[in-house]
Design goal:
Blueprint lengths: L14 E10 L9 E8 L4 E9 L15 E5 L6 H9 L3 E5 L7 E3 L7 H5 L7 E9 L6 E10 L2 H14 L7 H7 L1 E6 L8 H9 L2 H14 L12 H10 L1
Parallel strand pairs: 1-4, 4-5
Antiparallel strand pairs: 1-2, 2-3, 5-9, 6-7, 7-8, 8-9
Helix pairs in contact: 3-4
Length: about 240
C-alpha cells in the first residue's frame, strides 16, 4: 500500500499505526451515545488499544498511549489543537488530516493568516508544502510542523464539494470551505528532509485498515447493536464484553 519515492526508506525506529473511532447509539437514540476507539499497529497488524469512551470525549486525542517513535495516522476528527499539542510534546510523529476551517493555522513565524490565500493560485500546483504552526484560542496550545496539501482530481473534488454543500445546513458553504473540499491537507511535525510530502500523504492513505477493522466488528459481531439505554451501565458491559 505504500509506494515510496525513489531511494526513500521509512525512518528506522518509527512504529507506524493509526487511531480511529466509531459512534454507537442506544436503542431509540437520535445521536451518538458511546464511542468505540481503536489504536492499531499497521505494520505488525495488531490492535494496540481498544477502549469505550463517553460521547463527550470526541475522537481519540489524548486517550491513546503515544510515545517517542510512534508514527500516528489520524483523520480530521483528531485534529484539535490541544490533543495534537499534547501528542507532539510526548514525541509522537503525527500525520493528521486537518480541517483548515476548524483548526487555527499560521505561518511558522508570524501572525495568523488565511491559508487558502497562500495556497490558492490561478493554476495551483498538485502538491504544496508549507511550514506551519497550529494555534488555539489564547495561544495556550501550539504545535509547529509542516502542512502538505494535495489537490484532488476533478471528479473526486466535485464529489467532495457536492457532499460539502449537502451537509452544510446553515446556508451555502463559504468559498473557502468549497475550495478546501478539493484538497487533502495533512499536518505532521516530521520535516520534509525526513519524509517527503508524497510519502507523508501515501502513509495517510494507509490508515484504512483501522476503518476496516471497525467495520468487521460491526458486521461480524454486531458490536453496535446495543441492548441497553444510553444511561445504563449495561451498554458499556455490552460493548466491552462483545469486543472481548
Amino acid at each position: 500500500m505504500l509506494p515510496l519515492s525513489a531511494g526513500e526508506t521509512l525512518p528506522q525506529g518509527l512504529r507506524f499505526g493509526g487511531i480511529d473511532a466509531s459512534s454507537m447509539q442506544a436503542p431509540g437514540a437520535k445521536g451518538t451515545d458511546h464511542r468505540l476507539q481503536l489504536a492499531m499497529d499497521f505494520v505488525a497488524w495488531q490492535c494496540l488499544e481498544v477502549w469505550v469512551s463517553a460521547v463527550q470525549t470526541g475522537e481519540p486525542r489524548n486517550h491513546c498511549t503515544v510515545a517517542p517513535g510512534d508514527g500516528v495516522l489520524a483523520d480530521r476528527g483528531s485534529a484539535q489543537c490541544q490533543g495534537l499539542h499534547g501528542a507532539i510534546k510526548q514525541g509522537a510523529a503525527l500525520i493528521v488530516r486537518l480541517h483548515p476551517c476548524r483548526v487555527g493555522l499560521r505561518a511558522a513565524v508570524g501572525a495568523p493568516w488565511a491559508l487558502s490565500a497562500v495556497w490558492k493560485r490561478p493554476k495551483p500546483e498538485t502538491l504544496r508544502t508549507l511550514g506551519v504552526a497550529l494555534h488555539a484560542a489564547g495561544g495556550q496550545h501550539e504545535g509547529r510542523g509542516w502542512g502538505h496539501a494535495s489537490r484532488l482530481h476533478v471528479e473526486p473534488a466535485n464529489r467532495a464539494r457536492h457532499t460539502c454543500r449537502q451537509g452544510h445546513k446553515k446556508g451555502p458553504p463559504s468559498a473557502e470551505r468549497l475550495f478546501w473540499a478539493g484538497w487533502v491537507l495533512v499536518f505532521t511535525p516530521l520535516a520534509p528532509a525526513v519524509l517527503s510530502a508524497q510519502t507523508i500523504l501515501a502513509l495517510y492513505r494507509c490508515r484504512w485498515p483501522g476503518e476496516r477493522a471497525i467495520k468487521r466488528w460491526k458486521r461480524g459481531l454486531d458490536i453496535d447493536a446495543l441492548r441497553a439505554k444510553a444511561t445504563s451501565p449495561l451498554a458499556e458491559v455490552w460493548l466491552h464484553g462483545t469486543w472481548l
